Structure formats: structure tokens, C-alpha cells
Amino acid sequence: QQQVKQSPQSLIVQKGGISIINCAYENTAFDYFPWYQQFPGKGPALLIAIRPDVSEKKEGRFTISFNKSAKQFSLHIMDSQPGDSATYFCAASLRGGGYQKVTFGTGTKLQVIP
Amino acid sequence: SAVISQKPSRDICQRGTSLTIQCQVDSQVTMMFWYRQQPGQSLTLIATANQGSEATYESGFVIDKFPISRPNLTFSTLTVSNMSPEDSSIYLCSAGRGGMNTEAFFGQGTRLTVV
């Protein structure tokens, strides 16, 4: 059972545009929602994260929007750059299982074209 | 942060054989995990590596197929046993400091091809 659903599977964005990736979760016990960025041949690296008591978190060009009632959250990448081309995973974890025990979404391959 | 090194980085193995993957963390960590990432797919948790005791396996993964050791707070191994082509995947080690620490760190992965 996929507990975190992610869309789209792939995304092509022009340089300078906004990239938007959406996720939905099922387990209401999740209380930590990180986003990971993965480049080819590398392991995932934490990009930005949010807790459900906050509706939005911004770090530089990256913003997470969180809708607890809808059990949905999204990543917005503003002014997308070719260097942002990577696979992005939304994820969820819960304190009871240890925050580092992560359930991953299905992934979005982002390509930013010049 | 924590730096995680995995060995080997890649291998090509014959079906029916076994491969042991090593994971070394540069500092003591509470939590260590093993994930599998099939080509173009997401990461699926195989098990939690427990120091000094048997690993905790997720549904669909069994100890006979994926034996795990964790002799101390910085090192773990995952063995993929009696391999078949379906085991061709990237295997990733992850670690974290536990408690209220939230970040999980990942190794670069071991790309396994079974022929």
C-alpha cells in the first residue's frame, strides 16, 4: 500500500518558471513531511521539510504548502534553474517510528530546460 | 550532519550468489535503515538495523533473503542472498540520530545488477 502518493511522475519546466509537485498522504499519524532531492548516482538529500501545524514554509526558492484537512502538501520551486533538474520525493514520517524512518512518495523527475 | 559511505558502489553478480553491502557512518547514530530503489522507482524500506539485536523487517522482506548485521553504532551490512535478476536494484543505507532529530541521511547507494 502506497501511503504517500505523488504527482506528476515527470515535469518539464522552462528556466525561470515555477515547478509544482503535489503529494497526498493517508496516515493521519504522520507528523513530519520532508522533501528529498536526488541526483543521478546519488542518494536522496533533504531539501526542505514541514510539520502539520504549519501551512507554509519557505526556504529560498523552495516553498512547501500544507493542507492538513485535505491531507495534501506540495512543493513549489520558484525561478526554476537547470541545476534543479533532479528527482524529487515527498515523504512522511512519524515520531513514534522515529522521524528518520521515512515513507517515500513515488517521485517526480524534474527537467528544467534553458 | 552525517556522512555515509557504502561499499561496493556497484556490482554485477551471478544469479544464485550472495552480495554483502557495507555501510559506514562517520559518527555514531541511533537509527540505521536499508532501502531498495528499483530502477526509476521510489525508495522502499527493507528493514531497520538494530544495534546488538535482530533487524526489524518491513512487510514483504524476510531475514533469510536480506540478513542484516549492525555490530556497533556506526556500521551495518546488508546481504542480498540467493540473488535473482529481480533483485537488480539500488540498495541504500540511511542513518539518523533518533529522538527529536528529524533528518535522515543517505549513502550514495549500491547499484546491483544480477545476471
What does it look like?
The complex is a heterodimer of chains A (114) and B (115). With 114 residues, chain A is mainly β. Chain A has no helices and eleven strands. Chain A has strands at 4-7, 10-14, 19-25, 33-38, 45-50, 56-59, 62-67, 72-77, 86-92, 103-104, 108-113. In chain A, the strands form two sheets. In chain A, strands 2, 4, 5, 9, 10 and 11 form a six-stranded mixed sheet that branches. Chain B is globular and about 40 Å long. The chains are: A mainly beta (114), B mainly beta (115). Chains A and B meet through strand 5 and strand 10 of A and strand 5 and strand 9 of B.
Task: Please specify the SSE layout and strand pairing.
The complex is a heterodimer of chains A (114) and B (115).
Chain A: E1 4-7, E2 10-14, E3 19-25, E4 33-38, E5 45-50, E6 56-59, E7 62-67, E8 72-77, E9 86-92, E10 103-104, E11 108-113
Parallel strand pairs in A: 2-11
Antiparallel strand pairs in A: 1-3, 3-8, 4-5, 4-9, 6-7, 7-8, 9-10, 9-11
Chain B: E1 4-7, E2 10-13, E3 19-25, E4 31-37, E5 43-49, E6 56-57, E7 68-72, E8 75-80, E9 89-96, E10 105-106, E11 110-114
Parallel strand pairs in B: 2-11
Antiparallel strand pairs in B: 1-3, 3-8, 4-5, 4-9, 5-6, 7-8, 9-10, 9-11
